[in-house]
Amino acid sequence: MKIKPVILNTFIESVRDKILIILIVLGLLLMASAKIVQPLALGEESKIIKDLGLSAINLVSVLIAIFVGGRLIYKEIEKRTIYIVLAKPIRRWEFILGKFFGLLLVLFISLLLLAIGFFLVLFFTRIPADFSLLLPLLFLIFELSIITALALFFSTFVTPIGASIFTFLLYFVGHLTRDLKAFAAMVKNPALTFLANLFYYLLPNLANFNIKGMVVHNVPIPLGVIIFTLVYGVIYTAGLLFLATLIFQRKDL
């Protein structure tokens, strides 16, 4: 496959990035702080430590996707290595897909390291762990695929800082889209209702992927909801990669 060298190159370049190591260490330290929190939890240590660990994994993974993903294309242009790559028999959509899967591989390895750290914390704090804790991590992978595609999409036409800011804003708004739906149901103005509904369906609905609280509090999640959310993640990611490819095809390089 022609995208395989791009995936490998993106993976190697990303793991050399100091910010990646800093963020992973930060995540592990946050989870290790559970040992300090435990005596203060007053009988709720199981829920608090699980929630703290899953939140730390989520935060660090999202920051990696935003900061590393936002620089993927621009860094290639800045170093002029993109001209060498595009001079080879590789299509631009293959380049975009290679970048996407390369970063996704980095995120998966980072997530794996953080998850190991999380289960070690549970072991040393004597908090029982079960397989249901893996479900939020599965959802997180699909959420990260959307965020990575967003960062890649923006990195095709704005600077790394701009790509990171826009991705972060959409990540933030993406967790509030249910409020848009509620707003659309409340207002009486047809134009506002139309706009609220339009943005609700247009923006990524990332709140669907946040099931940490439900798992920690043992709230059952219907299988239909799980399947719908994961399929939604795949479709939304594919749409963003399609748009990123369209813009990159028209870029004068």
What does the model show?
This protein has 253 residues and is mainly α. Helix content is 77%, strand content 0%. The chain contains 13 helices and no strands. The chain is globular and about 60 Å long. The relative contact order is 0.14.
For the largest beta-sheet, the strand count, sense and barrel status come to:
none
Kindly provide the radius of gyration, computed on alpha-carbon positions and rounded to a whole number of angstroms: 20 Å
Identify low-pLDDT runs: none
- Percent strand: under 5%
Topology overview:
Elements: H1 3-15, H2 18-32, H3 34-37, H4 45-69, H5 72-78, H6 81-86, H7 92-124, H8 134-155, H9 160-174, H10 177-186, H11 190-202, H12 212-216, H13 223-250
Helix pairs in contact: 1-7, 2-4, 2-7, 4-7, 4-8, 7-8, 7-13, 8-9, 8-13, 10-11
Summarize the structure.
The protein is mostly helical.
Defining traits:
253 residues
